[in-house]
Specification:
- The protein is an all-alpha fold.
- The longest helix has 29 residues, at about 40-70.
- The chain has helices spanning about 15-30, 40-70, 75-90, 90-100, 110-115, 115-125, 130-160, 165-190, 200-215.
- It has a single domain, classed as Up-down Bundle (Heme Oxygenase, Chain A).
- It binds fe (ii) ion (FE2).
- Fe (ii) ion binds near residues 87, 92 and 170.
- Fe (ii) ion (FE2) binds next to loops.
Length: about 220
């Protein structure tokens, strides 16, 4: 226990809430920094949808799977499996591709390469298979996606699309996903605590940089 920072703090509910509160503050900050859709050009709106699709379509299930492999807590695994089950059964990548195509925002090579460096960093982070840090990262991501959906839908509508199944589904179901992942974080922390010199938010910070690249595009200086 003396070699850990966070496990002792998270043995009670209030500390678990505290982690969720910290993540919420980070998400609030990202939401405040989103550009006003009315001030974006059509090309800028298309770029955000395209880069989001380039990252999410091929990576979300991969990242959740990496998190499943990383966790040691037997109680945390069913929570992740429930997530993956829904992603695969309802084919969320199909939904997202349909959403992007309907908004005339299917990613090009330029879109994919604009996020390549920051995407690679997140992939390599998850490859380190650190159970707690991976879970915190995915809990942050689920929470962010849920909040981001109305903005993404607004961009697509401004592009003339009426195909909103992806944003409708994720604005609702990911609330449950996010809460389940925070519960899994607490379970994993007690069984597989992180080392004292580790950064609990290592993956969250990398993902936050990637989100900035999605929103800001090639001009991103994050
Ligand atoms: Fe999904």
């Amino acid at each position: 226990m003396s070699t850990t920072i966070f496990a002792p703090q998270l043995k009670n509910e209030s500390s678990g809430d505290s982690l969720q509160q910290q993540i919420t503050v980070m998400i609030d900050d990202l939401m405040k920094r989103l550009p006003n859709p009315e001030r974006l050009t059509s090309d800028e709106r298309r770029g955000i949808i395209a880069r989001y699709t380039a990252v999410l379509e091929a990576n979300f299930i991969y990242w959740m799977t990496a998190t499943y492999i990383a966790v040691q807590s037997a109680e945390a695994r069913p929570i992740i499996i429930e997530n993956l089950y829904e992603e695969v059964r309802d084919s969320h990548p199909v939904m997202l591709r349909r959403f992007a195509i309907a908004a005339h925002a299917f990613p090009t090579d330029t879109d994919a390469l604009a996020v390549d460096v920051d995407l690679t960093k997140v992939r390599l982070f998850l490859g380190k298979l650190q159970g707690v840090q991976s879970l915190v990262t995915m809990a942050f991501f689920e929470g962010y996606i849920q909040r981001f959906m109305s903005y993404l839908a607004e961009l697509a509508a401004a592009q003339g699309s009426v195909e909103m199944e992806y944003t409708d589904v994720h604005g609702v179901c990911d609330i449950a996903h996010s809460e389940g992942l925070f519960r899994a974080c607490s379970l994993e922390m007690s069984l597989n605590p992180i080392k004292a010199d580790s950064d609990l938010f290592e993956g969250v910070k990398l993902l936050r940089t990637l989100i900035n690249s999605i929103v800001q595009g090639p001009a991103s200086n994050s």
